[in-house]
Amino acid sequence: MIEYKENKEIIAKRIAKIFKSGEVVNLGIGLPTLVANHVPHDVSIILQSENGLIGLGPAPAPGKEDKDLTNAGAAPVTILPGGAFFDSAMSFAIIRGGHVDYTVLGVLEVDQEGNLANYKIPGKMVPGMGGAMDLTTGSRVVIAATTHLEKNGSSKLKRRCSLPLTAAHEVNYVVTDVGFFEIAGGRFHLREYFAPYSIEWILEHTDADIVVDENCKEIKL
Amino acid sequence: MIEYKENKEIIAKRIAKIFKSGEVVNLGIGLPTLVANHVPHDVSIILQSENGLIGLGPAPAPGKEDKDLTNAGAAPVTILPGGAFFDSAMSFAIIRGGHVDYTVLGVLEVDQEGNLANYKIPGKMVPGMGGAMDLTTGSRVVIAATTHLEKNGSSKLKRRCSLPLTAAHEVNYVVTDVGFFEIAGGRFHLREYFAPYSIEWILEHTDADIVVDENCKEIKL
Amino acid sequence: MTEKPVIDAAKAAAMVKPGDVVHIGGFLGCGSPDSIIAELVKLGTNKLTLVCNDTAVLDEKNNRITGVAPLIKARAFNRVIVSHIGTNPETQRQMNEGETEVTLVPQGTLAERIRAAGAGLGGILTPTGVGTEVELGKQKIVVGDRIYLLEEALPGDVALIKAKKADKAGNLVFSKTARNFNPLMAMACKLVIVEVEELVEIGSIDPDMVHCPCIFVDYIVMSKAQGGKK
Amino acid sequence: MTEKPVIDAAKAAAMVKPGDVVHIGGFLGCGSPDSIIAELVKLGTNKLTLVCNDTAVLDEKNNRITGVAPLIKARAFNRVIVSHIGTNPETQRQMNEGETEVTLVPQGTLAERIRAAGAGLGGILTPTGVGTEVELGKQKIVVGDRIYLLEEALPGDVALIKAKKADKAGNLVFSKTARNFNPLMAMACKLVIVEVEELVEIGSIDPDMVHCPCIFVDYIVMSKAQGGKK
After folding, report:
1. For chain B, which terminal residue's Cβ has fewer other Cβ atoms within 10 angstroms, N or C?
2. B183 in any annotated domain
3. Radius of gyration of chain D from its Cα atoms, rounded to whole angstroms
4. What is the pLDDT of residues D151-170, one digit of tens each?
5. Nearest CB to D126: which of C121, C148, C173?
């Protein structure tokens, strides 16, 4: 019997393999930020940060922080040679205009229709959508990054989101710590499952309709 | 008996007296361009040019032309210290957004409703509106600069424009070589007349409804 | 080019009147006019409407209070129009207890609505928010084969913004990600006050490198915050 | 940062296909990609739609032919969307004789429609043109107490633009009034080719001073026009 154990690094590792050199990627706060650490050295992607830059670099060395240079989570960052700064209208022109190839977001819920909820739990917690609605609407490919199960064991992948939506029918891929799913035709399509989990385990622990892709394969990460 | 003689310098001279220091002014091609030569030395206005600058300066010395620095008529110009360049979206954000105080335009016709025609004579000549529609819509005050009579002696000031409009109900002042008119309530209000013309001459030679302002006075320019 | 008055932060703060719609620059506190904000807190002006990207960071345990957070704490606003309040629990509390009306706007929509106000546009058509709560009460318009929401311009009475550098005419240069909403807000408000770290002579900024032309700026305030120099 | 391919003007011109909507930068020829235009004339590509501020200057008596005017003369376009044709009598002739369909768009509306396409907006609400022939066939929308026209986004297949300087990643810096529509068109088109006078190493342009970020640019062409240097 396989026991589920949350593993955010696995999610970040798998997502990092998706990109090709020259592609523009926006990584959300939290789990998605980890993706940057796993991009292969021979792949040079361009990170966009919605607070106003492309060419986001790694965190600065301690003591080298610049009060005027942060990411969308207010953490100090750096900019790579060839990067550029711009105002918020240009930043979202880039995002909404389809000039970002991939956006990677954390979720509270994601469903088989490609809906995603991550900005509001009515009456409880309302952080706000920030740039997430524009990012999901405008990016070429939307990737939801999430642990497969809640702390209480329930499925984060749903038939239908119950929380207010951040994005309607915009999610393309869902990458969890058990597998890689593509959303199409109102279903999750399982394309990969990550050792030690099995197809059976995933079907049993996901509260949604899953089609197992004919080329579905096990991946070790 | 007074004989009419076209006098563009008078028009430019009178308009140049309208502005106060710090005000932003856009001068159209042709007659309006002359206005810049007559602004008093102690008044420092900011000229905007819709092709992308504020702080328009005088023509460069011969041999000092810069292929990348022209006005909206493609003539070589200069920029004053404290000026700035921007793209066409910003240029018209400035114009449409109400950040230009005065726009001065030439006209084919102007009428007592504040309508102005200057971009199209159907079947004959269609230069296009360029920036004129945005300038008339967005500027705080629209000044039509025109000789009072056509070459054939007919009035340029009309009851109703017959040509396709550049601006509907946008003109505030009309300055001709015989007087200064304000448009209000569907009438031309004569506020000044320029020597050697008289109120009577103006009433006789204008094909529109004119109210003579109670403070209307003769001006020597 | 006419010089713009250089005033102190207290005088700037006093220009903000109860009832005003105030646009304040900054992204989680990066690029906020902190000196003016401090004086506005002192003054205790209230009944304001805030337009800002977010309500910044209020983390009193770690002594981290940034951007507009002190104004939120001081109950300066009875209405707040932002994209994010997740890093300021006090905004959340005021919202839940009905003290402050909070309108959440997608960040890109917020930027365009502010820009539209400055550019004389009535609004813009954006696909963002279609199929979500954001579409409620808004007109939907189809262009081509896509559905858009009509989002209206969002003008303000006063903009309090932050730049790295101004020349004496008020031409502005921003620094890195401290640019964010600042130049847009300068376009959108009747009265525009900029807090700067550096004030230079007219003519010393390359006219190709001006981020915000002087005609948008009414008053200049020298920053008292760290790094501020005259 | 990935380098963008540097190609010659002839290869750039060959990427423009009959039927394409082509955005070409420049304001009466100031800031036009003249080297690419010359090659496109040589190639004789036609049935194009032009989006440009104007059709530039065609004054053969004084041997003054600028910007897109040679393409107009070569009958490259069967449709032209511009704000002004007054300095090119050949455009006027083609329009009057029904050879070319000319759509006149107010300059500010043209700029916003191009920007909207690049920014993923369906369109914008502008007061410009209300009460004129420009309003014909357009939806009118009231916001507040003002009437606006709904003007739709104007995307393109190819943008041929001109910058002063690019780094090898494609970050662009424009010069003076040669900026005009160029950065907007880079946002609005599927394929973006920039002609530059100067090509510099990645990292040698201050990231605060980039006028058009590299992600909009696909190909770089070195200008053969006067002043071009490698």
Report:
1. N
2. yes
3. 18
4. 999 999 999 999 999 999 99
5. C121
Tokens of D39: 């090659």
D228: pLDDT strictly greater than 80: no
In a domain, A103, yes or no: yes
Reported confidence tier of residue C1, pLDDT bands at 50, 70, 90: confident
Does domain D6-121+152-222 correspond to CATH entry 3.30.200.20?
no
Q: Which residue of D has its CA nearest to A55?
A: D1
Total domain count, chain B: 1
Instruction: With beta carbons less than 8 A apart as the criterion, state whether D153 and C143 touch.
Output: yes
- Catalytic, out of B9, B50, B65, B204: B50
Q: Is residue B1 part of a domain?
A: no
CATH of the domain at B131: 3.40.1080.10
Interaxial angle between packed helices A88-96 and C107-119, expressed in degrees from 0 to 180 and rounded to the nearest 10: 120
For chain C, the average pLDDT equals 96
SS (H, E, C) chain D: CCCCCEECHHHHHHCCCCCCEEEECCECCECCCHHHHHHHHHHCCCCEEEECCECCCEECCCCEECCCHHHHHCCCEEEEEECECCCCHHHHHHHHCCCCEEEECCHHHHHHHHHHHHCCCCEEEECCCCCCHHHCCCCEEEECCEEEEEEECCCEEEEEEEEEEEECCCCEECCHHHCCCHHHHHHHEEEEEEEEEEEECCCCCCHHHCCECHHHCCEEEECCCCCCCC
Task: Provide the Cα torsion A92, A98, A102, A108; round to 10°.
Answer: 60
Residue type (1 letter), B148? H
**Residues whose CB falls within 8 Å of the CB of residue A208, separated by 6 or more in sequence, listed in order:** A111, A112, A155, A157, A158, A159, A188
Tokens of C105: 């706007």
Domain-wise residue ranges, chain D: 6-121+152-222
Q: What is the dihedral of CA B136, B139, B140, B141, to 10 degrees?
A: -50
The parent domain of residue B167 ranges over: 8-219
- Would you say the pTM of this structure is higher than 0.95? yes
Please report, as a single letter, which amino acid is at residue C85.
Answer: I
Confidence of residue A123 (pLDDT cuts 50, 70, 90): confident
Q: Kindly state whether residue A20 falls inside one of the protein's structural domains.
A: yes
Nearest chain A residue to D205 by CA distance is A82
> Distance from B69 to chain C by nearest Cα, in Å?
11
pLDDT of residue C230: 35
Helix axes B88-96, D107-118, angle to 10 degrees: 120
The pLDDT assigned to D227 comes to: 45
Any B CB within 8 A of D97 CB: no
CA angle D110, D115, D119 (to 5 degrees): 150
Q: Is B50 a catalytic residue?
A: yes
pLDDT tens-digit profile of A76-92?
999 999 999 999 999 99
Task: Give mean pLDDT, residues A128-148.
Answer: 98
Longest dimension (CA), chain A: 53
Predicted-complex ipTM score: 0.97
**Which of D127, D148, D209 shows the shortest C-beta gap to C209?**
D209
Interchain proximity B68–D175, CB inside 8 Å? yes
Residue B177: its H or E element: none
